[in-house]
Design goal:
30% of the residues lie in helices and 13% in strands. It contains three helices and three strands. The chain has helices spanning 2-12, 20-35, 78-85; strands at residues 15-18, 47-51, 89-94. A three-stranded mixed β-sheet has the order 1-3-2, sandwiched between helices. It is of the alpha+beta class. The protein starts with a helix and ends in a 22-residue tail after the last strand.
Length: 116
């Protein structure tokens, strides 16, 4: 997944933040846990991306807005927490329309979202 992001995302601008190092560490830990018979759930080791509107503890969440460029939440959103509890691995924050409303704007801190 990280190789595909590196190869294609410059054109797509689908991610505003890639967590490559964190994802690799989590994947290695997931492999060790699975081999030891301690899989955390059905999503154990599965990579995923979250729209940049979902809070992630210690990871910047901007809602694609200049107003929140430096915002780093202290707690995970319910979605982020439940996916993590199920063993899924966050690989990055996905672009969205500002505050997930309206259509693309071209005066924002990141290129317009080109993802579903």
């Amino acid at each position: 997944m990280l190789a595909r992001i590196a190869a294609h995302d410059r054109r797509l601008n689908s991610l505003v933040l890639v967590l490559a190092d964190e994802a690799r560490r989590a994947a290695r830990a997931a492999d060790r846990a699975r081999k030891a018979g301690r899989a955390r759930g059905l999503l154990h080791g599965i990579p995923f991306g979250l729209k940049d509107i979902y809070d992630t503890a210690g990871i910047r969440t901007t809602a694609h807005s200049r107003l929140l460029l430096d915002r780093v939440p202290q707690r995970d959103s319910t979605v982020a927490r439940k996916l993590g509890e199920a063993g899924a691995i966050l690989i990055g924050k996905l672009a969205t329309h500002e505050f997930a409303t309206g259509g693309p704007a071209f005066d924002l801190p990141f290129p317009p979202a080109r993802n579903p």
